[in-house]
Amino acid sequence: MNANWPRWILASTSYIFKTAADAFPIHMYLEGTKRRTDTRSTFIEFRLNGPRVTEVSSDYYKLEVEINVLFAVTVEDDFHLPQKVIGMLLETMTDVCVYKYGDDDTLLGTLVLKRQPVNVVTGNQTETEIVQGLVSGSYAMYLTGA
User: Percent of the chain scored above 90 by pLDDT?
Assistant: First the structure.
């Protein structure tokens, strides 16, 4: 197993979602970073769980990750904004190429979106006209220990 795999997976997956958020546009935070959300009522927060690593056979590994993107949007100007954000996030939940960022930017492998269970989308609207929700996807990738 390579000790850099978690770092490369985080860099590659968060880059894909940051690029989509910037194009939308909506501000994106990484989970655990210090920030003030009291000045932003519309944002997404990227969270990566994993990788969970299983050695399938000698020097051959299965890596599994789950990507969760929390969102919070206000609906005062655009009642359809929550659905637009969900759509953007679902479009971004595709297979992700993982590169060796920081070393030579070569392709490490591809995280393949698991089709079962299907991506989970939830949303809750509160009385303050803020809609919050979660879009998540589970991924797997197979690598040798190199």
Answer: 63
Contact 87, 20 (CB under 8 A): no
- Give the pLDDT band of residue 126 (cuts 50, 70, 90): low
Q: What percent of the chain has pLDDT over 70?
A: 90
| Domain boundaries along the sequence of the chain | 5-144
| 44 class by beta-carbon count within 10 Å (0-12 exposed, 13-18 middle, 19+ buried) | buried
**Amino acid letter for position 109:** G
Closest by CA to 92, choosing from 74, 69, 72, is 69
Q: Give the phi and the psi of residue 129 in degrees, each rounded to 5.
A: 65, 25
What φ, ψ does residue 134 adopt, rounded to 5°? -145, 135
Contact 42, 29 (CB under 8 A): no
Cβ–Cβ under 8 Å, residues 48 and 63: no
Average pLDDT, the chain: 88
* Fold of domain 5-144: STM4215-like (3.30.2000)
